[in-house]
Amino acid sequence: MTELRNACPLTTHEALARAALLAPDVEAVVTADERITYGDLAARVERVQGGLAAAGIGHGDRVGICLGNGPDWVALFLAIGSAGAVAIPVNTRFTADEVHYTLAHARVSTLFVANRVLNVDFTALLGELGIGAGGTETLPHLKSVVVLGDDVPAYATAWADFLDAGTGRIPAPVATPDDELLVQYTSGTTARPKGVLLTHRNMCADAFFSGARMGLRVGDRFHSARPFFHVAGSTLSVLASLQHVTTLVTMPKFEPGEALRLLEAERCTHFSGNDTIALLLLNHPDRTRRTLHLRGAWVAASPTVARRVIDELGAKECVVGYGLSEASPNVAQSAWWESEEIRASGAMAVQPGVEVRIRALDDTRDCAPGEPGSVLVRGWNVMVGYLDDPVKTAETIDAEGWLATGDVGTLDETGRFHFVGRTKDIIRVGGENVAPADVEDTLHRHPLVRQAAVVGVPDARLVEVPFAFVVLTGHGVTEDELLAWARERMAGFKVPRHLRIVDGFEDIGMTASSKVQKNRLAEHARALLEQAGVDA
Questions:
Q1: Which CATH superfamily is domain 37-197 in?
Q2: Architecture of domain 254-423 in CATH?
Q3: Which of the ends of the chain has fewer CB neighbours closer than 10 A, N or C?
Q4: Which of 154-163, 383-392, 508-517 has the lowest mean pLDDT?
Q5: pTM of the full predicted structure?
């Protein structure tokens, strides 16, 4: 891995030391309530390191972080990494049962938790779990809880006391590039989430290359509301900003009106978002009243949405990326210096030192250029494996190191990658495969469509057919008129057989990272058809 070592720091403490030395007065993290420079961040990380050392937390220990986006999350994450310990980000939208599963499965020994994150009272939630001094019978590894906030239970330690205990102690960093840094829990739909083991090398290199292709520079201001408990936040926001000494402007939860205010007030040069985030910004009534200063963006979005980000938000250097947690997460991405035509088309160059292979869906051969197939990935960004699950790891990474992503894509004649869709989401209409993203991209071209989401539903004749849910920017078009419009613009087998206009997707199901939960949307679609007496 000499090439990576020459390209960028491969541990979090090396990246922080470089940033604090190069630009100590550049702001590192900014929220609506707080802002700290890289010099401040380095000092805060040292204090947390001292507290970790005083608490006996060291190499290989599993440390839970259950906090909202902000400087404390970043400082704690970097201090844990420096100590060679392993960060276990806890999804702050989890129920008590899901929090318990994460803590138990990861064998978390120390948990750092906020009193409250948004509408969740975590002090009460921990009470539901019966957590006290020494954990519980079902959480035998949990030895201590540190609470950030005023309501500190008797069994827990206050954050200030934790820091004070380490006063004067500045332990030397011990982590190496190949040490485990984080366990990312994937979203489970039919089974329990899996813990993706990622190293310093995985995450630091991925953050560097992604940020470089995005065009991040020292002193740029990067807005990202991506939750830090997800790799789009920890790698592509926190560490990408650190690697390029960029100011990270964040918020506890994405809300488009507040995001637009921050983009303007903080003079942000870049933002990060998926298609939902981008569309919410583009279609918000405040957007035309805000003076934005965007130069670029990182989006996981269709060509139609990427083009709108370039044209309407002024992010002329907007790039498109593809990835998954098991690949740290970024696999392929366009670059800010490429032509708008390439970047807006969704064509992505595979990251340096990473290989992508497209395998026929029946697994009998490799695909020809332009032919859709299963996406396999190999390289320095591939995870160590799933925590304590060698069977599932072996099913996902073969003996030659190829990671089966569960996605469908193509490689064109030039070797550029094009994302088609998630294998589990592909709709099999008769003998044709339909990618929901393809149908959504067409619907997004309609001037009155704010957002579209497409899922497959059973069909007595064709096995499956597309069902589209559409949010409008106003009034003036009916469901039948939208379907007629779609028939003129896509092959017959791609046209939705069912379409519903809805007010939004929050009540149906959205993830914490602002993605529509397709499994819940499909359940909703099937329920609607059943209510309507449609024969499937």
A1: ANL, N-terminal domain (3.40.50.12780)
A2: 3-Layer(aba) Sandwich (3.40)
A3: C
A4: 508-517
A5: 0.89
